[in-house]
Structures are given as C-alpha cells and as structure tokens.
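for ur thesis appendix - Lipopolysaccharide assembly protein B. copy paste whatever u need, i formatted it the way the template wanted (i think)
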Amino acid sequence: MNRIFFSIVFLYLFKAEAQTSAFQLADSLFAMGNYQKAIELYQKSTPKISAATYQKIAQAYQATGNLSLAIRNYEEAIQQNQELVVAKSRLAKLYYQNSKYQLSDSLFRELIQHYPENPDFYYRLALVKEKLKDTTAIQDFKKVLEIDEHHQKALYELAKVHYEKKNHVEVENLGEKALSSYPENTGILSLLAQNALAQRNYYLAKSRFEQLLQLNKKSVFIHLNLGYCYFNLKEYEKAAQQFKEVIQLENNHQLAGLFAGKSLLMLERYQEAESFLRVAVVLADQPLDDYYTSFALSLQKQKKFKQAIDNFKIALEESPKNYRAQYELAVCVDNYYKDVQAKINYYQLFINKFKKEHKAKYYLFLAKERLSDLKEQQHLAKK
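the 3d part is after this line
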C-alpha cells in the first residue's frame, strides 16, 4: 500500500515539476522574443489552461501582431477570472485598436468603477469617446489632469481639442503646463507652434519651430512653416534656406519654390530667384488655379492688393468654382478700392455663387458680416 501511495505522490510531483519546467521554459522563450514557441509550450503545459496562462498566450499573440487571437485569449482569461485587471486593460486597448469602440468603452467604464483613481483608464476612455463622437470626452481628459496634473498625453489631447475650437489661450496654458515638466515634448511644441501661427504670432511660432529642429525633428511641415515665419518677419536669408530645405526633402515642392524665389527677390539675388520661380510656374500646371491662388494670397498678406486682385482673377478664370479665390478677391477689392458699391458687389457675387457650398460656410459667414457693415456704411453716407 505504501509503495502505491509513494508511487502516486512521486508521479504527481514529477508531473507538477514537469509542468513548472515547461512554464519556465515558455516564460524564457517569451522573454527572448520567441513568441510562437512560447505559445506552443503554454498550450501544451497542462490539460486545462488556466486564466493566467490564457493571459500569457494573449500577450504572446499580441507581441506577434496577431490581435484577433490576442483578443480571443484575453477574453478567455477574463471569462475564467474577472479579477485580471491587466488583462482587462489590455483587452480594452485592443478593442480600441480594432475599432471595436463600444466594447472598449464598456470595459474602460467598468475598470474606472473599480479603480477611480487610475488616470490611464480615464485617458483611454476619453480617446474611445472621441471615436464615438461623445462630447463628454473632454471631461475625462480633465479628470486625468485632476489626478495627474502633468499627464503629458492628456495635456496634449486637451490642448488639441481647444486648438480645434480656436481657444488659443487655453492651448497656450496647457502647452506651457506640459513643457514645464517635459520641455522636449515635440508633440506639444508642434501644437504650440501651430497655435502661434494661427494667431499670426510669427516670432513665437518661429521660436517653437526652431526648438523642434534643435530636437532633430526635421520635416517638410516644420521647414516650410519656419520659412514662412522668417518670411513674414523679413528674415529673408533664413527664409530662403528653410524653403531650400523643403525642396531637398521633397523635390518640386511648388509653394517652397515660390517662396524661395520671393525670398531671394527680396535679397536682390535675381538670377537665383528666377530659377526657383520658373520651376514653381511649371509645377503650377497641376492645377493652375492653386498656384495663382497661393501666389495671390502671398501678395495679399504683403498688402499688394492690386497684384493680388489680378492673380485671383486669373485663378478664377482657371477654376470658377474656387470659392477661396472668389472670397479673397472680394477682400482685396475691399482693401484696395474706395468705392463702397464696388466692395458690396464683390461680396454679393461671392455669396450668390457659393451660398450652397458647404465648404465655403466659414467664408460665407465672414462675407455676410462684412456686407452688412458696408451696406450700413453706404446708408449712413446717403443721409
């Protein structure tokens, strides 16, 4: 009897030790990145796979990029054990990655109920809500900052929301808050640069784009906008260099060629300027109205209204449906001519042509406001 008993115990211990060794080997393979072998060992390690093992299998599948099988195994793990918080969190994130926003939303809400002081859960829920067009997302971003005032991702997302709403002061405040604890946050620096540019604060925008270059963030977007800042600050040598950098990154960049040429003209380097402008004109064939509109806008910003008017008219000859050119033409006429009736006619023409164009909604609002002012001005002049 004793022999049988000890044999059973021995076999049990041997089997348990073998399982332990298999688990350890699987964990070792996982740690070294041999995920498929680790998965095979996890699946064969025991007749009935435990919740913890399903979680490890899910992590391995996730590491290989097989998100569907990762989701399936996380779900199996949670079904066996509702206390697996890490598995729930990872599953909720995978739901989000796979555009299963309702499932992600539900799981993050459940996690928040049990862990109301975890800022990451609120942050993730806010991201999900944005995808679901839920306007309460902003409240969750704010909740993150109540718990962790220096949460970089939440500060960025909240600042981005305010940027889209043109709440420039809020963007600045949130951005400075983020930089106070992480000065190298390039996402925030880029957003602050765009925020300054939107307000035509070229000096501040320039400073931030320069910081991005110092942090080795080089792109067409950064060089082009930094060049644009230099151009508006009349730092034409630096502007030309930035536009040349754009062209090195993206050959035949029309706008960079145009402004490189304009910068060089201001420096009286006429032959060099001509080479850039000639290329810009050739590129303007695709499409031509965009070229003339861009060129006219650059003239308009320099208050060269007569030249801008001529170029906007050419753009409209090429494309009569170019609502931006039609609106800006009215603005230039408004600034250049003294005849109030002429100004009224151009704004009225724009409104009549594009009153049903959804994309022109913002410009229609501006045109109607200005038209109302001009008519009142004309009425008072007649008294």
